[in-house]
Design a protein that fits this description.
8 strands; alpha/beta; Rossmann fold; eight-stranded mixed beta sheet; single chain; 16% strand; binds D-malate
Length: 264
């Protein structure tokens, strides 16, 4: 099932009466990055995913986005799909959205899954890199920015051994409207830091990170996991920053075990 909610392209698979899971993708990707998880999990769960505004088939508008607006969008998807206490699952930028959403109102959710993300806001170096990226898109075009960025998101062995998968993701990332991609960069560089909120999180939380994640490395995510009371932490072998795509079998097994534990 596909529909538009608040200008956002939303898809769902599975039975609506089952426990729902909302998947929030990373940057500069779209909802299809969760296909391997949704294929498997939709047998038992109602899997909802959507394109974050500015990316994929969602509304682009003027590109003036904030992380807060991304959170309101997430809430509008949950309300529009009439989901009751979904499990929230976000990767990287999707994790920033999820962390802030839980900080705003954790009562809306049953549990949290964080993949390859961090609670810290961008530091000065990070902000300057985003500024250069926006400039590069303006002066050289989207591909000049996206090709090296997307390549760095994957473990180098995935790029070599799963070239078909990598090329497909790269091709997809070049299809976005550059205005939307720049809007995402601005939203990320101006996001707040959610680290202090972690100790208030009461949700059962699964934290997963690719062993070779160069953007949000295992040490960073382990520290974050330790600050969340009810967290389980796992390093995903044979994966970089795109762990759910690079090693879906391992990630799916961990998610299924986590979800089964929730059912008690
Ligand atoms: C992502 O995968 O969402 C991005 O790498 C996040 C970021 O650039 O901070």
């Amino acid at each position: 099932m596909q529909k538009k909610i608040n200008g956002l392209y939303v898809t769902a698979k599975g039975k609506p009466e089952n426990q729902s899971i909302v998947f929030v993708h990373g940057f500069p990707y779209d909802h299809t990055m969760w296909n391997f998880q949704i294929e498997e999990l939709s047998k038992k769960y109602y899997c909802v995913s959507y394109d974050v505004r500015g990316l994929g088939k969602s509304y682009v508008g003027d590109g003036q986005y904030t992380m807060e607006a991304f959170v309101w969008d997430l809430f509008s998807v949950i309300e529009g799909m009439k989901l009751e206490k979904p499990v929230l699952c976000g990767l990287s930028m999707g994790g920033y959205i999820s962390l802030r959403a839980v900080e705003v109102d954790q009562n809306r959710f049953k549990a949290l899954i964080l993949c390859d993300t961090r609670s810290q806001a961008d530091d000065n170096e990070g902000k300057l890199k985003r500024a250069l990226a926006i400039n590069q898109i303006n002066t050289e075009g989207l591909a000049a920015f996206a090709e090296p960025f997307v390549t760095n998101c994957f473990w180098n062995q995935t790029v070599k051994k799963k070239a078909g998968l990598f090329n497909e993701v790269l091709r997809n990332s070049l299809k976005h409207n550059p205005v939307g991609v720049k809007g995402g960069l601005i939203a990320m560089l101006s996001r707040t830091d959610t680290t202090k909120a972690l100790k208030k999180f009461k949700l059962p939380t699964l934290v997963l990170v690719g062993k070779h994640d160069a953007l949000t490395p295992p040490e960073v995510m382990q520290k974050m996991a330790k600050k969340i009371k009810k967290s389980d932490f796992f390093v995903v072998p044979k994966a970089g920053h795109m762990a759910p795509l690079e090693n879906p079998d391992f990630v799916n097994t961990k998610i299924i075990k986590f979800l089964e534990k929730l059912e008690g």
